[in-house]
Design brief:
heterodimer; A: 435 residues; alpha/beta; 8-stranded parallel barrel; 12 helices; 22 strands; 28% helix; globular; B: alpha/beta; FAD/NAD(P)-binding domain; Fumarate Reductase Iron-sulfur Protein, Chain B, domain 2; 5-stranded parallel beta sheet; 36% helix; 18% strand; binds flavin-adenine dinucleotide; binds flavin mononucleotide; binds iron/sulfur cluster
């Protein structure tokens, strides 16, 4: 059986699935239920200074849905914890005592003044929790007060606050990054420069999820008004994966441990984050959608896959996909693929045809010898993959490599055997000329 | 009351009121909003969708379903009514399992088609309950058209002609409009007087007047109609029924199923409709299934359909057969009636001969079985009414001959629906032909 035990900057947990700092981790009651269900760790809902903040009394979430109202993206305007600091600290202490084998991290957000950080760190140490996460990510409500994303968007502030924190505590310090920036490598480098033990990302993405067309107001709507919120859930996973990979590939931060967050819903999502360089994952929306029981599928699914693929432990998959992430200009332009339609699984919906016909390369038939039939026209197919993505039947259309030496009917030339990329391409005015 | 259930003879009130109510309730209750949303989500929005091709009226099904899933029920209803103004009835009575839903790619994929019929009902109910009208009449053309028959064919034709700005007068020999929608369709497919609501909905566009109890052949003639109007459309259905033509007392003992159903549809209360304890139905089509099922629902204890060929030859779809079997109707194959005699007790002795295929033809085997029943129904096909009401218009194989434009041998007379020798005998086909004939008439009148 694959070994899912996990050590993140010295913090041990029985599996790499942590609950992200959010409503599921706001109280002892929830966290105890999560640990009983089997979660490996928890990042407690972000603490701030007293007097504690307040939340709106109206709706705080909005969402987008896919077919059958499957929740794809969640938007929230909730702030950090709205409970008194000492209540949270007492509960953290009691949970850690009851579950010594689980990871318990405390998330923090206080004003950008050294004494504020010093004070709260001392109080958190008393709880004997395993580490702290500095929340530089919240995009709404807190950033207007000079905290959260307001810090996370300025690398110098990240470095400064991280340095204060490292100086004032012996606990590991994780810096949680905001995706609301242009290039995530700069805040990650700043965290490292400030001495962070690790980064976690992504926090939520600034968003307006929908508009109430009767009130002409953004949703969620509070007394006729709305505000931007933070977006998360399955829809944000691709953005998060890209950011995790960018930090993992950056030579300056390649050795900085990453806790991957954003849209993790299944074991497969988690495996993808880990192969792109994350050491573990944090989850919020999936738990908020389905409850804590999903941990069973997450753990068993990951184990089953690792067993069947022969991966003994997390170290043997972590970062394995990182070397295969490259720049577009280094992709092999001689690689050629054609779509293939398995006629036995085709249900003749015609989506591939109309997608290709209306919007792409006119490379799929809709009629062959007077019969409704969908076949790829190799002379036109550029191998773009759109048909695969719109076909409702999985694996009905596949992209097959046309091996070197075979005739590409589209170009009328044989597929070359050698690797050749854009930097060498004759159409590239900046190409590298062989010496 | 319930003890009448076991009495022999043809009697009323075999069941109590609650049982009648339950038995004749809506066969396929409407989807609620959530169910409709889930069902609509399953549509793949196919290209050149096979369901559209399979629909005789060619409703743009993917479009109306997408409109349901985006919360645009009015747009959805409009999409349906554009092609089929009787989309409400069709949603209830179409054998979707052999039409759109059979062609659905999710039938291919999972054996579970998108519930097109029920979704169509969802959208059309929404529109009709609110009386929302989506089509206005074009400017008055000064032309007028006589439509004979207010069944699905005649109503669809009248509506399309009215849309084009023509004046339409509909004559129907029955006291109520609707044709078989009102008098023939199984009770549980069209509850709560839906057929009459639909007639009102269709005629609300204006420019259509319906004259009931007005029969072509009795006072009205084609020539007379053409003297007053610019064109005539015949949607007279099939008013006659085939006779059994066997020895004995068959012709006065057996009831034709269509008349029985019409009586049932018009009855004020199910408790007033007499039915036998033991009932036999001769036939293998939709009418046979409907009369047998409704006889059971009226309280007949034993109902048997006897069909002269095998199950695979039955005109009734397998879904319809299953539906009647689930209500307790027995279907027996490979037997044909050879004699019917009245017994001393007043029951009927129906002598059936077993049949088989011999040399590619159906033949009697010389082996017989006699069934004692209280009531015998014949449902062995309908024909044009025998009178010479259609004058010299050419008839082909017992139906009115038409060309591709649905024009009869008289170039000023068009025809559609069951009475013509084209298409299946279905409500939806009648609607398609009525609509298409209207387009052809309009083109001719405005040429
Ligand atoms: C028992 C039964 C059940 C059926 N069930 C279904 C079903 O579930 N689904 C389905 O799709 N189809 C069903 N059908 C078939 C469907 O009802 C017909 O195909 C459809 O009604 C044909 O429409 P129509 O307008 O051509 O004729 P009809 O509906 O028969 O209408 C003809 C009209 O013309 C009038 N008329 C006739 N002669 C004259 C005259 N000389 N002068 C004036 N008026 C005249 C009649 O009074 C009638 O109103 C069923 C048929 C029967 C008999
Ligand atoms: C309602 C809500 C409240 C959140 N509150 C916090 C918070 O207090 N501190 C924090 O660091 N992140 C907070 N987050 C962000 C999550 O921890 C996480 O980074 C984000 O939701 C992406 O992960 P997911 O796609 O698994 O939900 C919150 C998210 C939600 C939905
Ligand atoms: S999209 Fe897939 S199922 Fe649909 S026609 Fe194309 S290959 Fe067949």
């Amino acid at each position: 059986m694959a070994d899912l035990r996990h050590d993140f900057v010295g913090i041990k947990s029985p599996n790499p699935f942590w609950l992200a700092s959010a409503p599921p981790t706001d109280k002892e009651y929830n966290v105890v239920r999560a640990f009983k269900a089997g979660w490996g760790g928890v990042v407690w809902k972000t603490l701030g200074l007293d007097p504690h903040i307040v939340n709106v009394g109206g709706p705080r979430y909005g969402a987008i849905w896919g077919a059958d109202r499957r929740l794809l993206g969640l938007n929230n305007i909730e702030l950090i914890t709205d409970r008194p600091l000492d209540v949270n600290l007492q509960e953290i202490k009691s949970v850690k005592k009851a579950f010594p084998d689980r990871a318990l991290i405390t998330s923090l957000m206080v004003p950008c003044e050294e004494p504020c950080w010093e004070g709260i760190l001392r109080q958190v140490e008393d709880t004997e929790c395993d580490g702290v996460e500095l929340n530089f990510g919240c995009p709404h409500g807190m950033s207007e007060r000079g905290m959260g994303a307001a810090v996370g968007q300025v690398p110098e502030y990240i470095e400064m606050v991280t340095r204060w924190a490292k100086a004032k505590t012996r606990m590991p310090v994780i810096v949680k990054l905001t995706p609301n920036i242009t290039d995530v490598r700069y805040p990650a480098r700043a965290a490292k420069a400030g001495g962070a033990d690790a980064v976690s990302l992504i926090n939520t993405i600034s968003s307006i999820v929908s508009v109430d067309l009767d009130q002409f107001a953004p949703q969620p709507t509070i007394d006729g008004k709305g505000t931007h919120g933070g977006y998360c859930g399955p829809a944000v996973k691709p953005i998060a994966l890209n950011m995790v990979a960018a930090i993992a590939r950056d030579p300056e931060t390649a050795d900085l441990p990453i806790s991957g967050i954003g849209g993790v819903t299944t074991w497969r999502d988690a495996a993808e984050f880990i192969t792109l360089g994350a050491a573990n994952v944090q989850i919020c929306t999936a738990a908020m959608t389905y409850g804590f029981k999903i941990i069973e599928e997450l753990v068993e699914g990951l184990e089953q896959w690792m067993d069947s693929a022969g991966h003994a432990n997390l170290a043997s998959i972590q970062g394995r996909a990182v070397p295969n992430v490259t720049e577009w200009q280094y992709l092999n332009l001689n690689y050629t693929a054609k779509a293939r339609i398995d006629q036995d699984s085709c249900i003749k919906c015609g989506r591939c045809h109309i997608a290709c016909e209306d919007t792409s390369h006119q490379a799929i038939t809709n009629m062959v010898d007077g019969e409704r039939r969908f076949e790829v026209i190799d002379e036109e197919c550029v191998g773009c993959n759109l048909c695969v993505n719109v076909c409702p039947v999985e694996n009905c259309i596949t992209m097959e490599q046309l091996p070197a030496g075979n005739l590409d009917k589209r170009t009328g030339k044989d597929v070359p055997s050698e690797y050749s990329n854009w930097t060498q391409h004759p159409n590239n005015p900046m190409r590298e000329v062989a010496e | 009351m319930v003890d009448r259930y076991l009495e022999d003879g043809i009697i009323e009130g075999r069941l109590d009121d609650e049982a009648y109510e339950q038995n004749f309730a809506d066969a396929h209750p409407p989807l609620d909003q959530h169910e409709a949303a889930v069902a609509a989500d399953r549509c793949y929005f196919c290209y050149d969708a096979p369901c559209v091709t399979a629909c005789p009226t060619a409703i743009d099904i993917p479009k109306f379903i997408r409109q349901i899933s985006t919360g645009n029920l009015d747009g959805s209803a409009r999409t349906i009514f554009e092609q089929n103004i009787l989309g409400g009835m069709c949603a209830r009575v179409c054998p979707t399992e052999t039409l759109c839903e059979q062609a659905c790619v999710r039938e291919t994929a999972e054996g579970k088609p998108v519930q097109i019929g029920l979704l169509q009902r969802h959208a059309t109910d929404h529109a009709m309950q609110r009386g929302a009208q989506y089509f206005a009449r074009a400017a008055e053309t000064g032309k007028s058209v006589a439509v004979v028959g207010a069944g699905p064919a005649g109503l669809a034709c009248a509506h399309r002609l009215a849309m084009k700005g023509h004046k339409v007068v509909v004559h129907d020999s029955n006291p109520k409009a609707g044709g078989l929608n009102e008098y023939g369709i199984a009770t549980y497919k069209s509850v709560d007087q839906f057929a009459q609501h639909e007639v009102d909905y269709v005629t609300a566009i204006g420019g259509i007047s319906i004259v009931n109890d007005s029969r072509l052949g009795a006072g009205l003639t084609i020539d007379g109609l053409l003297a007053d109007h610019d064109a005539v459309f015949l949607g007279i259905g099939l008013g006659g029924v085939n006779a059994l033509g066997v020895d004995g007392d068959a012709d006065d003992a057996g009831t034709n199923a269509v008349d029985f159903i019409a009586g049932l549809r018009q009855a004020d209360s199910f408790a007033t409709v007499p039915v036998g304890r033991r009932v036999m139905v001769i036939g293998g089509g939709m009418t046979a299934i409907d009369v047998a099922t409704q006889a059971r629902l009226l309280g007949a204890q034993e109902v048997t359909i006897a069909y002269r060929r095998g199950q695979e030859n039955m005109n009734a779809s397998s879904a319809e057969q299953d539906q009647s079997s689930s209500k307790g109707v027995a279907i027996r194959h490979w037997m044909q009636p050879s004699a019917v005699t009245k017994t001393a007790s007043g029951s009927l002795a129906v002598k059936m001969e077993f049949t088989a295929m011999s040399g590619g033809k159906l033949a009697g085997t010389g082996k017989f079985q006699t069934f004692e029943v209280d009531q015998l129904f014949t449902a062995i096909g309908q024909t044009l009414a025998s009178g010479d009401e259609i004058g010299s218009i050419v008839v082909e194989k017992g139906r009115i001959q038409v060309n591709d434009e649905l024009q009869t041998s008289n170039p000023s007379v068009w025809a559609g629906g069951d009475c013509v020798a084209a298409g299946e005998d279905l409500t939806v086909t009648a609607v398609a032909q009525g609509r298409d004939a209207a387009e052809s008439i309009h083109a001719a009148l405005t040429a």
